Amino acid sequence: MENVIDLDILRPKERKVKLAGVVLDVSYIPCGITFEVDATIRALAGIDQTKLGKDENVTKKGFDLTIELCSIFASVKHPEMTPGWFKENCSLEQINVLANTIKDSLNDSYLGVERYGKN
Questions:
Q1: Which domain holds residue 36?
Q2: Average model confidence (pLDDT) for the chain?
């Protein structure tokens, strides 16, 4: 009998969100966009939180990066979900919740690498 290593057990529990009629699987970050997602999250983390809402340029940069993060993630399976799509079809609250969910998924991915990636 053939030995099979079942890597499907490493896949996170399925989590989905519905946004403007589109269902997205937010369980994990596909490996092909991990570095792009990480770079965008780091750029967001670099924004001076004390200036949000007070400095229009800083606020706009944070808004644009948040939408970019959502678009990077969603457009993998839904190419129509561009930054323009998010601006036209979503509220700021929806975008913020999705962005936070993406951040959580990235953190979970890194925890998985720590647990199982000894190489």
A1: 18-116
A2: 90
Taking each helix axis from N to C end, the angle separating 34-45 and 92-116, rounded to the nearest 10 degrees, works out to 120
Q: Is residue 12 part of a domain?
A: no
- Indicate if the pLDDT at residue 114 is higher than 80: no
Which pair of tokens denotes residue 17?
Answer: 């969100």
Q: How many domains does the chain have?
A: 1
Give 85-98 pLDDT, tens digit per residue.
999 999 999 999 99
Amino acid at 85: W
Other beta carbons less than 10 A from residue 83's beta carbon: 16
Q: Which residue has the higher pLDDT, 66 or 113?
A: 66
HEC-encoded secondary structure of 15-81: CEEEECCEEEECCCCCHHHHHHHHHHHHHHHCCCHHHCCCCHHHHHHHHHHHHHHHHHHHCCCCCCC
* 109 beta partners: none
